[in-house]
Every structure is written in C-alpha cells, then in structure tokens.
Task: structure prediction
Amino acid sequence: MIKKFREVFGKTDDVLREYSMVLVMALLAAISTIYYINYDYNGPEYAFFYVKFGLVASLGISVMYALKMLSQRIGKEILLQLIGIVFLLFFYFLLPLKEKQFTEVYAFLLIPTFILSHLLVSFIPFIGKKLELNFWQYNKNLFINIFLTAIFTGFLTGGIMLAILAVDQLFDFNFNGRYYSYTFSFLSIFGSCFIFLLFNEKGLFYLEKNGDYPVMLKFFTQYVLVPLLLIYSVILYFYSAKILINWELPRGWVSYLILAYSVVGILAILLVHPLKQDSTKSWVKIFSKIFYYTLAPLIILLFVAIFTRILEYGYTEPRYFVLIIALWLTTVVLYFIFIPKQTIKFVPISLFVIGLFSLMFPYLNTFSVAKRSQKSELLKTLNHKKILENGKINFEKKISGEDADEISNKFNFLAKRNETDFLLRILPSESRKKFEKHLADDNFWGFSSIRSEFTNVSYKTEGDHFQNYRNTRLTSKSQSVDISEYRLLVKANNYQKTRFVLDNNKFELEAGRSPIYSTFILNFNEEEINLFPEVEQLFKNAPLEGNQIVENLMINKKVGDYELTIIFDTLIRTSSPKKKDEYMINSESIIILIK
Result:
C-alpha cells in the first residue's frame, strides 16, 4: 500500500513539474467559474470579467498543452510558453468589455477557436516529421486517455458530491447549495485536467511509443462505427434517389447528416489505420478504399443543399462554416483518391488550416462574408418591396407580416455585428433617434423592434397574424434588497389571492386568474387599486422583443398611510400589432414590503 501511494505521489510530482502552465490555466478557469457562480450567474456588470477570464483560461489549457508537446520535440519551452500567453492575452481583448455586447456572434469565434486548439494538439509535435505510426499511436493514446478521464472524473465528482450530501443530511450542517456547484466546477475543470495529465505519464515520448493495437478499439470501430456508417449511407442514398425521382431541391437538414456521415467515416478510417498493413484484416482495406468513393456523390448533394439556402437567404456564419467544411471534405476525398503517397496527418492539418482561414483571412473570413451578404440581402428586400425611398425606409408603405419579420431579423443580425452605422443611415430621422438610445444602452435586441415601426402590415390569415406576436422578458439582476426600513415582508403566491392584516387594515393582492393577464389588483379595506399601470411602466424603455436584464424589478405604491414595494423576479410582455399588450408575472413568488 505504501509503495502504491509513493507511485501515485511520484506521478503527481511529475505532473506538477512537467505541466505547470497547463495546470495553472485549469486552476484559473475553475476559480473564475466558481467566482461567477457565486454571483448566481446574474451578478453585477464586473462579474462578466470572470466569464471572459474563465473562457480564455479554458482555451489556455489546450493551447499550453499543445505548446508543451511541441517543446518536448524541439525544446524552447519558455519561448513557446510566452507565445502562448501573448496569444491568450490577445484573445482576451478580442472579447467584449460588457456582458450586453456578448451576443451569440462570439460563439462563432469561441467554438471554432476551441476546436482549432484541440486540432493543434493532435499534430503539432509531428510537423515536418515522417513518423506516421508514431503520429497514430500518439493520437490513439490521447483518445483513450480522454475517454478514461471522462470516466474517472465522473465517478470522482459524483462520489464527492454524494459525500457532501451525506454529511449535510446526516449531521444537519445545512450546506449552501452553491457548494455542490463549486465542487462540480472545480473537479470537472481542474480535476479532469489533472487526471488526464496523470494518464500521460512523461508526455510525448510515452504517448507516441509503439504498442499493440487495442482489441476494444478494433471492436468499437468494426461493430459500432462501421454499422453506423452503413445506416447513414443507406438513408442518404435513398434520400438522394427520392430527390432525383421527384426532381426537388434537398432540405437544409440533410447537410448535417452528410457531415455526420463524413466525420464518423473519417474517424473510423483513422482508428483502423495501422490494420491496413495487416493482410488478415481485409475488411479494413476494403472499407478504406470504398469510403471516399461513397462520400463523393454525397458531397455534391451537400453543395446543392447549402447553396440552396445561401442563394435564397444569403450567408450567415453557420452556412459559411458548412460551406467551408464541404470544401475541406472535397479536398480530403480528392487527396485520398488521387494522391499515391498519403499521410493521415493531412486530415487534422488541412482542417486546421481551413479553420484558421475561415476566422482570420481578410475580407473572406466568416464574419466579413456574413455581414456583407446580409447587408446586401436587406437592401435587396427593401428595394424589391419598394420600401426604400431616397435611401430611407418608408415605414408607412404596405408590407406583409412575413416581410416585416425578415427585415426585423436582418436588422437584429447586423446590429449584433456592429453594423449600426449602416442601419442608422437607412432610417428616417425620428426612428434613428429612438434606436440611437438603444445603442447607448448596448441594447442590440432593440433593433428587433424595427418591426413595430411599420404602420401598414398586412396578414394573409389569422394564423399569420398570431405568429407575429412579440415577447419581451424583463429579469431582475438584484438578488437582495435592504429591508431595514420596512415593517412587514409578505410572500405572495403567483396566480392566487394573498390576504394579510396590518394594524387592523386588510390587504388582498390578486395576481390574476390566468398565466397571461392585464390586471394586477390590490384591495385595501374594500378599496380596489389597479397596479397595472405601474407594471406597464416598467416596460417603458424595453425593446419590443427579446430579453433584458434590469438592475431591479419592483414597483412602489402609496396606499393609505402605507408605502408598498412589490418585487418581481421576471415579467413578460406579449405584443401584437392589432391587440392590446398583455403581461405575465413569471416569478416564482412576489415579495411585498410595507412601511
């Protein structure tokens, strides 16, 4: 037992010494996540710093690990670490300063960058090295270590959280619920990273050493991946036949199935690569030869599907990425069909290069292409519908609900991509002033309300009219309030009547009889007081559609000799062009403070 402990602690010492920067990044990511959780995911503005810092530190785990693998091949570890730190600092300042500016656009930067950093790990120690088998062994061992790490981390995290729960329940400690979130965050980030590094032993030279082909890997490929490919191929080829018979354009969703088929197939070929040299494994040779030929017709179908969407609606970031992956798949197919001396390193390296191109190449990167395309599509719609007059939108022109939605969506899309100058230029002066206020508050959702500017919207059917309802959700940022000046706190139940007495005065709050209502009534000594105008006032500066976090969500009302403060978690307004706005109190409870 003592010997076993020494072995474990010996490996721990090696990990701390060899992978210090990787562990520092994991520790910073875990701490940042814990600090953000401490604000209940909805803290003050500066809490967004922990989100940014945690994301960059998480990216730093794979970046620093990749540079560590390279340094074990070529040396110069300190220089490579400095390069990594400079890159992470640069990436940190690419992210916005404020949480309101952190729109879904940044997902199209973050997700590809994380994927590229992991691709870098897969090939960077083998750049310029003709070590085909070593390259395969290295990635095979990484693949196995990731799988083992997931199992070990899952059991460790679950076991420790269960232990905390047991101590809490058995000894009545009444632990704060956040302790479970803290534990999960720390173990899933730092713990999983540490466990993964323990499996790596000494690093590169351990990971790339020759070893027997794992029986389970062969089983997984032969009896799981290959049958999945067979199912995918049958579905896709039958669907291709249906398209030819009916002579119809393919559905956009088929793109994702073709991509899944391609990824699973390439993964299967990479996993069985060493078996190609084994004459007894004839199924591997046959599978490796025919897969790329089966993929070729499906790539044509993929191009037809993606260009059908692009030509109709223009480029967006997801469509751009599907197109760029289709081009990469074409390159891979041509390479493995026509190039005699092949290397499996071509797969991750080519994907890394084309991914880097999609993010960084001037003018042709995903963000530039998407913005230019949607600006063009917006102007085309405005001109085609004859809404643009002297370079300005005429909101009094008759327009269909569908066209109004399309224009609103494009405004919202471009606003989130900082094309606000372009949008303001095509707005008449009165509308421009309104939307400049939204910009001052970094309220990009406000541009969705461009739809409400149209005064002559027509609907084909009543159903079409119903689909044009718009919801605005207000959520309170504040999680606490000073109650020192108040005499009484009452918790009111939503959708029910809440009655209480203070100084022989009778209060009754009626929070509506249905989820959506336009009344909010307080009865005070038989006097009925409508609180609806105060609720309505909270939405005065809110956008027509979307979510908005406000500092606090409360109304104040003087009733007799008392002053009431009523606090909500969430309020929702439903708007439509032809109906009166309706409101819903979407709070778990309503707090009433009286002084």
